[in-house]
Amino acid sequence: MDSWKIDELSRRVDRGEEITPDEVRALITALTSTRSEIAVPSEFVVRVHRIASSLRWKAEHPVLRFEPEADHPADALVLAGRELRDALVRHAWPDPNERRARHGLSVTRIEADSIANGDESPAVVALRWSLAELDRTATELHDVKYEKSLAVQAEAGDRDAREARRASALAALSSANVTGAREGWSIDGFGSADQIGLTLPTLALALPFGDRQFDRWTFTPNRQWFALTHRAEPRPMSRHERAVVTPVALGPTAELALRRLGQQVPTGASVGAHADYLTLMAERFPAIDVRRITGPLSPAWVPLPIEALATLAVGTPDATLNLDELAKSEEFGPFATWWRLVWITDETDSDFR
């Protein structure tokens, strides 16, 4: 409470005027705060000295419950500071964040680096680790801020920003053993079959990505992988499938049968379309059960049950592929994979381009 407010209340009491309960509480609060401040001396002088017949150092002060010892005087002083904080923890000090905002850090980074390059005492090692973590976190935050800025500029159509985003996406795909698209308007590295060099039609294992960002994935290097965005439905819907795919070897009779199948697959997700697809598969591939297939159908993206891999790739090494070893995510391991088996074509019927 300001002194002028106290003087005003004092004059009102002298005149016999009443004081409100809120003003009484304010006075009590001010009195309590003043008593707390008086109880703490205006300065603390901590004495650090060498212990007799020893190479260790001790810190002393009347309010310290323990007298910390260390191999280095600076460490002893740091330990004494911790003890001093414990001794004064009951006092209502100003908010440390507010104090730092007003006055800044008490130790500069240059001073901290100098201390961290000192001996190998526990305090110095801890400080060195803290500075390394600070640098790592600052770098991560800078990268995130830079990526967000690039994303905004790229969405606005900035050519340089789009090229930078594409280069970053291609680098991530390359490190994961995936071929991306270096041309086109897309900036995520995914592209059409022509742009990524994928020959159609092909039977492929596909890992759908939808709108997810490609990050921290690794695909086995002993196969070809492509970042594919494929039009699976003609205009006006123009539905696209976005997935990382790898071609699968076909058995001697499967390719011709699949080529004929792709020309007759219905388009759409209606009950009628799925009924027609079920009938068609019963005629072309009676050993393959597609009753669990859901979602939209298309002659350009024909979904097949993953169990059909052994039937369609019979006689080839791909018939016995271990799907758990093909890809993994750094965050979730192989359990983040949900493989789809699809027959991908370049059907142009109804404007598939």
Structure notes:
- By secondary structure, the protein is of the alpha+beta class.
- Helix content is 41%, strand content 13%.
- It is built from 11 helices and 10 strands.
- The protein has helices at residues 3-14, 21-39, 73-87, 96-103, 109-116, 122-155, 159-175, 193-196, 254-262, 271-284, 309-312, and strands at 47-50, 57-60, 69-70, 202-208, 217-219, 226-231, 240-247, 301-304, 327-329, 340-344.
- The strands form 3 sheets. The chain has a 5-stranded antiparallel β-sheet, with helices on one face.
- Strand 6 (226-231) and strand 7 form a beta hairpin.
- Helix 5 (109-116) crosses helix 6 and helix 6 packs across helix 7.
- The longest helix is centred in the middle third of the chain and has 34 residues, at 122-155.
- The N and C termini lie far apart (77 Å).
- Residues 98-105 and 349-353 have low confidence and may be disordered.
The shape, in one word, is elongated
Q: What is the structural class?
A: alpha+beta
Can you list the strand order of the major beta sheet? 6-7-4-10-8
Largest sheet: 5 strands, antiparallel
Helical percent range?
A: 40-55%
- Calculate Rg over CA atoms: 36 Å
Low-confidence stretches: 98-105, 349-353
Tally of contiguous helical segments:
11
What's the number of extended β-strand segments? Answer: 10
pLDDT average, as an integer?
Answer: 81
* SSE order, one letter for each helix or strand: HHEEEHHHHHHEEEEHHEHEE
The first-to-last residue Cα distance is: 77 Å
Percent strand equals: 5-15%
Summarize the structure.
The protein is an alpha+beta fold and 353 residues long. It has helices at residues 3-14, 21-39, 73-87, 96-103, 109-116, 122-155, 159-175, 193-196, 254-262, 271-284, 309-312; strands at 47-50, 57-60, 69-70, 202-208, 217-219, 226-231, 240-247, 301-304, 327-329, 340-344.
